[in-house]
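Why should sequence recovery work at all? Because a backbone constrains its sequence more than one might expect. Tight turns favour small or flexible residues, buried strands favour hydrophobic ones, and helices have their own preferences. The token representation captures these environments compactly. In the example below, the structure is given first.
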């Protein structure tokens, strides 16, 4: 799949050009909070002791590897992404960690997941649901695939940027996106478009209430939110 046509793959170029320093940049632009946010999402994924777990848009494997580290048992964990450079970093990180060695990393677009219907007990996604849904013409096909491969009663766990409720904190959060996230990401990566897109999409993305409504409309039966860092991010749990 790597190097194939980008037709029907919005954002593909962005995520095949930034991987080298991706983890470092994430760490800097989130002021070191990225690991804690992966941890919160991983704990939500593990709550019902799922057997088969899928991390979609796994990037460099942050969520999948954290799930493997926190699990008190041995779940079957798969990470998928359409960026081969991201997957290569993920596989190298996982194989050098004691608990991540058995994670399977597969190149796959969320629009065409190579799994049987109702296969996974839990699907997680960290900081990529925005990519799948913000002004993305393929949103519906992504949602269809996620719902198809998730078991009835299975959990879909999303950790994503959100909108703080307090207008003052939201103002500070938006300043942080404009004056820290965009220039710092651009400076370290050299990729202006990628970090302009990140800041712009985060500025306009759903609040927790809007996101819950979106998940229910998409076809999930229940959805709950837990706000993180004054609402700048949130973990959502939606049940099929
Ligand atoms: C912002 S990164 C997040 C990576 C990782 N989940 C994390 O927490 O750091 C977004 C990831 O989504 C992937 N991605 C975006 N759209 C995708 C799609 N339609 N199918 C598969 N991967 C996709 C990108 O390649 C990229 O690795």
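From this structural description, the recovered sequence reads:
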């Amino acid at each position: 799949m790597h190097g194939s046509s980008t037709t029907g793959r919005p954002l593909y170029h962005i995520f095949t050009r930034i991987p080298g320093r991706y983890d470092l940049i994430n760490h800097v632009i989130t002021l070191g909070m990225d690991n804690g946010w992966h941890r919160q999402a991983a704990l939500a994924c593990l709550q019902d002791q799922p057997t088969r777990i899928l991390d979609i848009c796994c990037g460099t494997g942050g969520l999948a590897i954290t799930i493997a580290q926190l699990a008190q048992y041995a779940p079957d964990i798969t990470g998928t992404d359409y960026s081969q450079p991201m997957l290569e970093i993920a596989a190298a990180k996982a194989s050098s960690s004691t608990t991540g060695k058995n994670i399977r990393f597969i190149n796959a677009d969320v629009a065409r997941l190579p799994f049987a219907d109702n296969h996974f007990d839990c699907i997680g996604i960290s900081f990529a649901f925005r990519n799948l849904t913000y002004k993305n013409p393929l949103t519906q096909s992504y949602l269809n695939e996620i719902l198809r491969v998730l078991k009835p009663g299975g959990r879909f766990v999303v950790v994503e940027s959100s909108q703080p409720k307090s207008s003052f904190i939201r103002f500070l959060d938006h300043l942080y996106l404009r004056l820290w996230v965009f220039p710092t990401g651009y400076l370290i990566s050299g990729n202006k478009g990628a970090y302009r897109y990140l800041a712009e999409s985060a500025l306009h993305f759903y609040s927790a209430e809007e996101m819950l409504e979106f998940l229910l409309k998409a076809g999930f039966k229940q959805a709950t939110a837990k706000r993180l860092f004054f609402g700048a991010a949130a973990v959502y749990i939606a049940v099929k």
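A few observations help interpret the result. The two ends are 29 Å apart (CA to CA).
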